[in-house]
Please model this.
Amino acid sequence: MTTKVLVIGGGPAGLTAAETLVSRKQEVVLVEKEDSLGGMARELACKGISECRDCGVCYAIDRADEATRTPGLEVLLKSNVTSLERVNGGFKVKIRSLPRYVTGDCIDCNKCVEACPVDGKAIFAPTGSGRPRPYWIDRGKCLHFKKSKCEKCAQVCPTNAVDYEDRAKNVTRNVSRVILATGIEPTDAREVPRLGYGTVPNVVSSVDVERILNDEGRVVRPLDGVAPKKVAMIQCVGSRSEKSGVEYCSKFCCKYGTKIAQLMMDGDPDMDLDFYFMDLRTLYEPQEDFKRWAKGMKRKVEKKKVPRVRLIRSMPSQAYPGEEGKIWLRSSGETDSEVTETPYDLVVLSVGMKPRALPESLTSPLGVTLDCHGFARCETSDCDQKVLALGAACGPMDIEETVTNAIAAAAIPPKEGN
Amino acid sequence: MKRRVQVVICRTCSGAADVLDVDRLLRVASDAPYVGSAVIVNYACNKKSISEIVDDAKSKEVDRLLLVPCSKKDVSPTLFQAYVKKAKMNEFLMETVDLVGEAALPHRDDPARAQAKAEAKLLAAIARTALLEPLHKITEDMRTKNVVVIGAGVAGVEAATTAANLGMHTIIIEKSEKKLKVPGVMMTKSRVISTEGHAGNYSLSIEAGEKRETLECAAVVVASGGDWSDAERRFIDAAPDSKPLYQLDRDVSEGKTPDGTVIIIDTPDPEGARTAAQDFAWEEALDCAIEIRKKSPATEVYLLFQEMRAMGLAELAYKEAAGLGVTFVRYDAKRPPEFDSEDGNRVTVLDMAQDETLSIAFDALYYASVSPNPDNIAIADALRIPMSPSGGIRRGSIQRGPVTTLRPGIFVCGSAKFPKSEGMARLEGRAAGLLAAQFAAAGEVESGGSVAEVAPEKCSACLTCVRTCPYEAPFIGVAGKAEIAIQMCQGCGMCAGICPSKAIELHHFTDEQLLTEAAVYLRGDF
Amino acid sequence: MPDREPKIVGFCCEKHGIDSVDLAARSGRQYDSSIRLVRVPCTGRVDGTHLLKALEEGADAVFVLGCLEKNCYYDTGSIEGRKRVAYVKSMLSEVGIEPERVEMFNASSSMSWKFSEIASNMVKVAARLGPIGSRGGGR
Model:
């Protein structure tokens, strides 16, 4: 009976589980649908400048880096589980890996992207800070696969890493356990149209800002590259709501939102920030720390010290466009007795999270049930110890809790025999 | 010492035709001092290549290897292990140099300069490799398979259970007299006083009642939890009948719902001394409030708080509680609730949301927050690990993981880190138990290799190294000079960097090795 | 004006320091080739004499790159690195050499943008100040 374990998902949960299992002498097959490992953490920014702010992003990136060098860990990227059936006390899994069209000889020199004639490109670098880092071609956009037979990228590649003959591969693995670590995706800020995402220029989501910070190191408005001087952050967008997004609290957005605010302010001494919130839920950190930081952020204006950060306990009701790309936010104060309208250069909506949709073809043979929010539970007798769901697929949690969850999961010994 | 370097250049990635000129690199290497052999292989990661390289090494009588590898970092460790075995080379006489990542990829716009830089970097790497010394690691057996857990709370018992399930012998050190069914051994009325030894072979001095005992163990898990008693003292002064939330939780789960008016309160802490405590019990507080309202609709429930930290799915309990008529009163930290000096069962509080002062007569008051355990100071001192600013035990850097501490083999979990719910404490306990058991299961611990060493004749016993090292490796030995305890040394070199007498060297990163590399690299003109 | 390209040495830790350099290179970031990196296990290893000797051997500027403080793999190493740089800066000021020639930086393994910024900062300093002594300071 094999002791191989299948881990579905290569984010912080899957990577930590895989690493912990390998260190417990088990063989692991890790299946990840994206082009690189790291999950959402690939596009999240490190929130520190010279001092760490404990966001946990680098932990996921470090594990992703190690995963490519770990004997006993098979990593399948751009892959999905196509079928799963119970056999002989374990599972027979079929996995389909989509072609990358670029081999492991790729050295990330970026010449292919420069040479690609397609508008918006058809060959891409790995997403964000993900590892490993070979490039990949989107067959749907690539001209080679249409009539033109373009070979510009192959021609410039210094290591002959472009392989148009790459095809999807189907492999079968027999495993004794399956770990579901499929993670989360952000809630859609468009579900809260009154806050202007997608309609009012310079209203962005926290995910957008993380991406910009991760790529550039500082926040600039995506439309015109202007460095914003007056920024608003609005918490709980698409969480804690019956009308839009999700009903529960997404748990990590105050922690990450406050750290994004701190990072943005660190990067620009001329920036002022208004932090709109309902309850300050800085996960596993005293809320006083952020309040104290906010109080300490002051600027000298004509011999007086003026606050640069305001904590406003209110959910703005409306965002509407102003001149020069500014955004006006209408909100009430703490006691709902007055209404103010304030202009900003940039409005950041802190969005929440929801679990990725899991198909029944996966949950059914595994005996995994999804609750009303889509979070995975393993409470049926079918599950026993052979199937485990962990990480944010099971409930809202930040990276550190996800990692703890994943380590703890590896402590459950597999059942012997049939 | 022979000092003959074998330079192996992998053509496939280093060599990509228009990135670097591999043949020129080969010539530069061949002409460099100390080089006994310079070869190109097509795929250094290939098993056949390893045999080629080893044969070449043997025939050219080289004693050290410099590999110019593929950009794929994943190649090197397996290659090295195979090479070490076959060529019988000391593992510390092998180096890699990343020419692609550091001298080619970032300088694509200026290939001539990139090539010149790659050549200079190669020469610098060769110069460093020539200066390397063979080093040996020492393996020491762990004398026990003991895992000591400090604290028999939720996290501690979970850690012990996990470690025991994985085959370790667990000893729980618990300060109180409580009786619990736990795996292994539980020593009650006991405290850790001091620690000797190093990871894998720790020697703890335990005060057990009146006696002193020495306990040997391979790993330690700190699960000292939070503290109710501190908050209790303050509330007893103000509201003599107040009780901790866990008591309400117990009563409610046993079907004893209170009558009249119940208040659940967080930590009003105007001095800001106990800021860490607010996060703890909101899940439990809300669940209790819901149960009470369902079972006894006549009972009024008030929740007094500064921030309603109903995190994650507990938000739904918040909604449900509100829907069942629980009254939520948010107060400002600077205007905390005041207890009537005459009527011990009345509290006055300014409701920030309504901007209205409420005067609530209550029948029962429960406080829903947990302070850091004041014993953490003594425990941190005994184990010599740092504390966090909020009074908990500090977690190691996030690079190391969520339940580690500064010292290898010592882990921390649960409210000892930061107040948290029972469920989370249990999870952390399990994770810490696993890591501790895994550590102990290795059975042996490795040290040595790239470690620091003191030249006693230069040492002025200023104690700077002793104060700087986070791992307590340097100590003043019997000769009155500093010495490095190899089993504690992590190889960071902080002591070597700070020694004012330049008496400490870090093997494998000596001053000569670092400065030679820098000097040769600087000599290259590009 | 200096008649050669700037020479800059960077002492870079083998943990997040070199991880950020590697991520930058493998994200297509470009930076000036004047940067010469020397690896150390931790920036705490860096001695004031290393920084001074590098300047003596021809570097126009020297930097130290380590993990973020509080996330140093060896706990306080990058804090020690910073202290060393601060100490050397004050020594340089005393002998009339511009203290900007020596600098401390921190990065994490997920920062792809930081290293090119570090490189460009140091190249600007080196280009502006030229080799040591070229503007009457130092030797």
Q: What stands out?
A: Chain B touches chain A through 59 residues (CB under 8 Å).
